Amino acid sequence: MNHKRSPLRLFSLVAGAVTLALTSNASGQDLKYGAPIPAVHRTMFDKGLDYLKGSQRKDGGWAGSAGVTGICVMALLASGEDPNFGRYAENIRMGVRSIIRRQDGDTGFIQTGMYEHGFAMLTLADCYGAVDERMLWLGEDDKGRSIAEALELAVRCAVTSQENNPTKAWRYSPDSTDADTSAAGAVLMGLLGARNAGVAVPDSSIDGAVEYFVSQTMRTGNVNYSGFGGMGDSHARSAICALVLAIAKRQDLESYKAVQEYLSKTWDATPWNHPAYTLYYRSQALFQVQYEIWRKWTQENTVLLAELQNEDGSIPIKGASSGLEFQTGMALLSAGLNYCLLPIYER
Question: What is the pTM for the complete model shown?
Answer without folding.
Answer: 0.89
